[in-house]
Amino acid sequence: MQADYSFIGLIMGASPVVKVVMVLLLLASIVSWNHILRKAAVIKLARRAADEFEKRFWSGSDLNDIYRSVVQRRDPATGMENIFEAGFKEFARLRKQSNAKPMEVLEGSQRAMRVSLARELDELDTHLSFLATVGSTSPYVGLFGTVWGIMNSFRSLGSVEHATLALVAPGIAEALIATAMGLFAAIPAVIAYNRFANDVERLDSRYDTFMEEFSSILHRHAQE
Description:
Elements: H1 7-12, H2 16-57, H3 63-72, H4 80-95, H5 102-125, H6 128-156, H7 165-223
C-alpha cells in the first residue's frame, strides 16, 4: 500500500505527541483570530466614538446639554463619553454642596475621570496579553513538536537494516508541519499585538489630552 504524503496524510500519520501539539497550535490560532477580529472592531468603534464626541464637545454646546445627551442615549457610552460623564457627574454633585471649595470640586471630578479612564484602558487591553503569549510561545511549542517527531523518525531507524532517506523523510516532514503551524499561529498574533498596543496607546493619549482640556474648563466653571 502506497503511503500518503499529502499535507493531511502527513498530519494524520504523525505521532500522538505531535498531533497534540498541532491541535493546541490550531486552537491557539483560532482563538487568536477571534480576539484579533473582535479587538479590531472594538478599537475602530472607540476611535470613531472619540472623533464624534470631540466634534460635539468642541462645537460650543452647553456642558449640561452634552451630559444629558450622553446619559439619555440608547447605546451605552464608551471611551471619551464615559470619561466626560464621570467627570461632569461628580463635578455637578460636589458643586451642589454649599461648603465645597473650587479646588475640592475639581479634584473630585479629576479622580472620577481617572477611575473611568482606568476602566476604559482595562477594557481596551483585554485579550492583548493572550495575543502576546501566543506570539511568543507558539514557535517554541511547534519546535517541540518538530524535535519530538524527528526523534521518533530516527528512533524508528533502529529496527531497519538499511536506512534510507525515503524511510526518514516522511517523519521529518510530519515534524516540520508542527513548526509551520507554530509560525502560522505566532506571526498574526505578534503583528496584531503590536498594532493594537500602539492603537491603545494612542487612544490613551487622546483620553489624557481630553481630560486635561476638560479639567481646565471645569476649573473655570468652579470659580464662577
